[in-house]
Write a structure and sequence with these properties.
46% of the residues lie in helices and 17% in strands. It has 248 residues and is an alpha/beta fold.
Length: 248
Amino acid sequence: MTDALGPRCKFGVLGPSTNTIVQPDFDDLRPAGVTNHYSRIVIDDANAVSNETFMTGTRQISDNTLEAVQGVLSCKPDYLVMGMSAITFYGGAEGGAKWKRQVEDNAGLRISVGSESLCAAMRAYGGISKVAFLSPYFPVANREVANYLSDHGYETIRDTCLRCPSWTAIAAVPEHTISAALRELDGDNVDALLQVGTNLSMIRLAAAAERYLDKPVIAINTATYWHALRAVGVNDKIHGFGRLLEQY
């Protein structure tokens, strides 16, 4: 049987229950014939986040992910997309691959995750070895991101973390704050600017920044959805969200 609205692919999207950005972002990136079916990873909103509580909160998300997987399988998705990025970087390349395998083995489906998607996007652009990145995280998580990138051959020249005080506060970060952070991160010794943290709204801002900074600016939600589309053989060129979806 062919799904009436999703004849090309039905995505099962996994995201924290506190996340209000991934679902609308992915829907905006969706080409005709592809549908997104969001399954919430139920968690509490983190408050007074510190290095310690940030890591504890993200591990709660990891612990509850498989329940969300089971919650979306009954609609018979063709492929899974992870709408939370921090935990996919933990433990470097080996840790990220192990976490991904656990989800895929449980679901019996393949999944696109933020960490792997970001590296795939940089390979698609080509010519990238030195990067700077922005996150809504705390420093301990930024170190995990830099370690993962290093394992894949990318050197982090600079990074910044916004230290958002709760999960829901990430979605409230204003555009001018993100723009200022990108300008501070940029420099002649950086080949690309990256953004991690799926509840930070950046798919349009990253596309605009690519034009005025004249280098790749890759938002995690754009990279993850691009990776999922290409993984299932949907090669549509989608305009308005940067070079990644327009050219690769």
